[in-house]
Amino acid sequence: FTSTRDNIHDTVGIETEMAETGENDLDCGDLTVVVRFVIPKGRTEVTVTEALAQAFEQSKEAGLAPIWVQEQEVLNISPTKTVTFIHGDLDVFVMDPFSGPGFNHVTSSSKFKCTVVGPRCLLACLANNTPVPELPYPMYTAAMKGMIVTISGLEKAEKEKFKQLVEKMAGIYSNAFHDGVTHLVAATARSQKYEVAVGKEIPCMLPRWVEEVWKVSNTEMVTAVDPRFSSHRCPALLGVTVSVSQLNRADKELLKKSVETHGGVYSGVLEMDKTTVLVCTSPAGDKYSHAKKWNIPCVTSQWVFDCIEKGYCLQTDSYRVDRGKANSSTPTKQDQTM
Whole-structure pTM over 0.85, yes or no? Predict the structure, then answer.
């Protein structure tokens, strides 16, 4: 872990020569690095979690000079105003679990700007020879380190739940979609954020991706881009309701199976407020007329198969059976189902 040690010491501006002395206190002028491993009430250095004990030993090997402190001692500490391994006085608390009076003491007040990490977050940073992320919230694992995640299609309470999980995995949550976003968590393929993500070739993931990464990263050193999580990508037709017209029975059955296999809903009826697209062969018939009136795109079946082949929901414009024709009248609330 020599290179890890040097990396972290360089990050905080300590000369490499000092790092190699093996001194227990990491003082350099006004600079002090304090890495406190918190022993929960009722536990000892011997009975703390395996991950916490392992992180302590590897921190010693990396030259961080960690110390054990009882949870009760934490309640008497006023953490310094810092975020992470940067210039200035540094307080780092390594805790497992992320609960209890000590954890609440150093995380509940905005006055405390210390770094609070779980042992698996610290172990990942040591293993990868990288500093702890400069983020102002507790990080239990590093599974989403370097990722910026935004969410589409979830209710406020659900968004908050996933925001907290992303942050606990050293990721960054963003309400808005901006150039730095690396992943979209989507409940549907029918949103503006989804369209932007597809255009920028940004991965679109299901909400359960966040939950599964969180679950696995609590017991393993893993990142959210591990291939095992690729099954949690958004299906191409997630949240899309497809109705059909003018197709024979065999084609309808094939379309139904394809739509439902890839996250969509196949419906025998056309509904103004529910149907996403009408699949048909020509601009004719009652369903087509009502779809036009209700501003529902009327497309060929190739749209469905191309979405599946590409792996994401495509724009409908180039698949419309009525390209070049003028739109019909404004929809009304009457006769909303066909």
Answer: no
